[in-house]
Amino acid sequence: MTEPIFDHDRLDVYRLAVQYTAESFRVAKGLSGLHRHVRDQWLRAAPFIPLNVAEVNGKRSPNDRARFLDIARGSALECAAIQDVLVASGGLDAESSRSLKRKLQRIVSMLTRMAMKDDGVGESQAEYRELVDDEHEHRFAEHEHEQNIGAEPELVVLVLSRLRRCSCSSSRGPFDDRTDLRS
Fold first, then answer.
1. Average pLDDT estimate for 10-33
2. CATH no., domain 7-118
């Protein structure tokens, strides 16, 4: 493969899926006659593995990511079944199938781990609740442009401490005094 340009290019599962697809295409060239329908299905299913892995990397929604991981995994399992049909019908020798299935097994395993990682595994939002005062967060956003606030850690701590001190009943926001936060 070429030098990685996109994030999905760096994924082992993507690279392995592209290798599997290329090998399945090479084997499929020799299939004809009675095997042509299964061959055509194989040629449709195999590319969907790397294509969906690449698409997963472009999705931010956990539901979208899970859906495309499931599609990629389903395509890999479909390829395994197609190989079984080809071996049973004499279109593919058992050794070639075993070699290709080892790749598929690794691909399915990686996709399953990726799906499990995306499936509710993560940090609890409760850890961040203490740091952000949701009631006054809008005030910070409204006045952010007036304060020229950067991303310096000391400034963030100062802003958060002002947000905590702000009274909920007060009509004034934490930045209404127009003082320079850096002083």
1. 93
2. 1.20.1440.60
